[in-house]
Structures are given as C-alpha cells and as structure tokens.
Predict the 3D structure of the following.
Amino acid sequence: MMYNLTRLIILLLTVMMISSCGEEPVRIPKSRMFPRVFYPARDYVNFDTSLCNFQFRLPNYAKIIQDTFVFEGKPVHPCWFDISVKELNASLYCSYYPVSKSKNLSSLINDAFTIAGKHNIKANYRKETVINNKYGVKGIKFEIEGPVASPLQFYLTDDKNHFFRASLYFNSKVNPDSTAPILNFLKSDIDSLIATFKWK
C-alpha cells in the first residue's frame, strides 16, 4: 500500500514538472525607453526689433515670447524674452541690461558667474568657453554637465554699454541621458545665435 502511494506521488510530480515545461517564453521586464524625438527641419531667420539694441539669427521653429514678469507695474525691460522651442520642450531665457552706474559691467558679470555657479551642487563638470565673435561681441559660455536645471548659459557684452544673458532650460524633469541628444541639437542653434549676435 505504501509502495503504491509513493509511486503515485512520484508520477504526479513528474506529470506536473513535464506540464510546466511549456512553449511560453520566460517574461523579463522591458528596459526603460525614452520617447522618440522628431527634430524640426533647421532654417534660420533674423531677430531684429526696434525695441532692442541687438540682433541675431535664430531657428525658424523657435518662437519669441515676451517676458511677463512685472516689477512696479511694468516688465523689467522690453528686451527680456524667452526663445521657446515647443517641439523639443525647451526654452532659452534671455535678459538684457544697459550698463549703468547701478548695474555696472563688473556686477553683471559677477551675477552671471553666480547664477551659473548655483548649479555646481549637482554638476559633474563645468566648461567655460570665451566668446569673441566677428562683430566684436565678447562673453563666456557655460556648459554644465550633470542633472542640472540649466545645462547651458552664456552672456554677451560690448564691454561698455550692453549686457545680454541667456540660460537654456528644459520644461521637464532633469534627466541628462534623455536630454543629451536634444541638447546637442540645440547647441548648434545657440552657437549660431552667438556667432551672428551684434549690437546696433
């Protein structure tokens, strides 16, 4: 009797093991993927307005959005604006200051370094490149690597009367791996802006 019970248990275990070896593959979790990015066709137009003391070339898919930050009932300056690239979920925040006694060139440059330096906590590396384009515009470009809010910033000046500063931001959670290809694409447009920037 005991012998038959043992044979039955072994037979049942064997049938269960054989039936569990089906054709269905073992499922493993899918690796994390990022959405596919469709880059716009690149062409350039001139940014030139009577409100500002400068002009430059920008991509035709970018949109100028006037700054709405109000101080004492009016915008800080009519030449404060964002260059929005909606397709790539990015914006270049731009501000202009006339050099004056209250906003002298030294303090404006120090402010630009301070703002770039605020990203040092999360930055892996910061590269500073001296700007000196063919129109006599000078400045510094800050390229900041790591999980930072603004991976690229720069300022431009004529060393006397004008100061322009810009910071690139992505309108999404910071993820350097997913934004790296978009950043590389936008760097060409920003380099074009810097190369064609001139004071009036």
